[in-house]
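Subgroup meeting minutes
Present: P.N., E.W., G.H.
Scribe: E.W.

1. P.N. recapped why we're keeping a running log of single-chain structure predictions: easier to compare across weeks, and new members can see raw inputs and outputs side by side.
2. G.H. added today's entry (329 aa).
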Amino acid sequence: MIEYAQRPDLMPGLPQAEFGTAIGFFEGVGEDRADLPEWRGDLYLELHRGTFTTHARNKSWNRKAELLYRDAEVWNELGRPYAAASQHASFKSSLEEGWKLLLLNQFHDIIPGSSITEVYETSANEYERVFELGDGALKQGIDALAEVISAEGEGIPYHAFNSLGWMRDEVVTISGGAELLGMAAFDRDGNALPCDLLPAIDEKDGAYALAVRVSSIPAFGYATFWLKPVGAAEAVAPVGLEWAGEDKLNRWETEFYVLEFDRTGTIVRWYDKAEDRNGWRREAGATSSSYSTTSRRCGTRGISTRITRKIRRSGRACVGEGNSPGKCA
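Output recorded in log:
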């Protein structure tokens, strides 16, 4: 460092440096104050915004945990009038422990990925605890509300909760086994709700997942719907899906279409059953963004399409069976 301070004397154009004390430096700054620029506000480096990381899982866990704890706080505060004092004390204790761990793992070397290996091993264990506490607190808040929500009606009741500040429509999933076959969803007025019966991604959740589109869930509120058995003509037919490993879709078939995907989630074939033709198909040897269509109506070629599958975690729609919170989507 001493050598660095001496080098500017040998290089024309560089500021001259001299050795001194901290007291001497600050006294000199005071004397030259009139010639120095003035900065008002926080000393914040804007270049810290939107930094990359070598440990993407930590950034993902951090954001998911922040949203989870926000939801837990929303539903526990709304359910506070219906919960016992001991339950509220338990919620505060859990959230305090969880937030401290979450904030600890926001340390500036952990999220950008510049810490040593042992730090990330510890961080992974701490995030498990963060999600354990957050999920427990969220369930506690939803349970308190579900206990006082009227579920009278024919069939099995479910409640879809909306933690956002505006009304929304959402597709929620209910996992189960063969009992979902021959079932359909209905709202409070008896109107049938759009449904798809899908093979479950994870076998431990059951053989099927019933996806139900619930409309007009009020802000910071809920909508109740019921599952009940229907005749064969009204039953939801299982959608044909082929999964390639963890959450990767190869093929999606309905009574109308067949969609095929590559490993990036790009549609490589769209077959229209009614027209008995390919809407488009990626040509052999083409790039992932080059397609052809065999439309007999317009003869258009070179159509490019791509789907991006995103999991929206902000303001999750949580589904509970009866007085149980169940799955969140």
